[in-house]
Amino acid sequence: MRVALGISYNGQAYQGWQSQTSGLTIQDKLEKALGKFAAQRVSTLCAGRTDSGVHGIMQVVHFDTGLERDMHSWVRGTNANLPRDIAVQWAMSTPDAFHCRACATSRRYAYVLYESPIRPSVDHGRVGWAFRSLDGHAMQQAADLLLGEHDFSSFRASQCQALTPVKHLMEISMSKRGAYWRIEFEANAFLHHMIRNIMGCLVFIGQGKKPVSWMSDVLLARDRRVAAPTFSPDGLYFLGPRYDPKWGLPDRNAAYDGLP
Hints:
Blueprint: E1 2-9, H1 26-38, E2 45-46, E3 55-64, H2 71-79, E4 86-94, E5 106-115, E6 128-130, H3 136-144, E7 148-151, E8 166-177, E9 180-187, H4 194-206, H5 214-221, E10 236-242
Parallel strand pairs: 3-10, 5-6
Antiparallel strand pairs: 1-3, 1-4, 2-3, 5-9, 5-10, 7-8, 8-9
Helix pairs in contact: 1-2, 3-4
């Protein structure tokens, strides 16, 4: 039987999603909790790996098991063994043809940015910080230059293992409430550090350090050295993958996201 889970987590205390020898990753904690509940080893695959310090609103994983358990039991039993900053939101039995990564049609992230001359305190670790005023109109104009299918090598980390730097960026939208900016990204897939590197460029432009046209120059250069420094992981949230409705998985928009 194949089971899919929706996972949310605060990434501050963890070294990203993917399992490491330290055991201090989301995958390590999840598989340990699943193993305790199932009384056997459980190996998971995820829809999109997140970096150290990055949060997850609706990470989707799947695993195969011979155990027959009520889906609500997978939720309650696993959560009973998880740290308080990681929680299973739902569990569903799926056809064997479902693959949480390969079946995703796109992936969505949000970056929450705090604009203030004073650094964040209560929101420390949960928001990025811009201490200079930002021109949202200029940022949106620059973001629009990235839409479509492009070679995003200028926004790719040197450790990136993707087979190709060509991705289709479908949306970058911005909204502001009080001192908080929320910038949402949707693409078929993302490169390692791609969003954080785009954010660095957007903040440069928003603060007037670079003109809007500079974003095109960075994109066309296909060279990471010409872009802005990688921005903080603190405000980055994986909102989750999108799937064909035929799989019947919950819509991430129906889940609590807790973001400004």
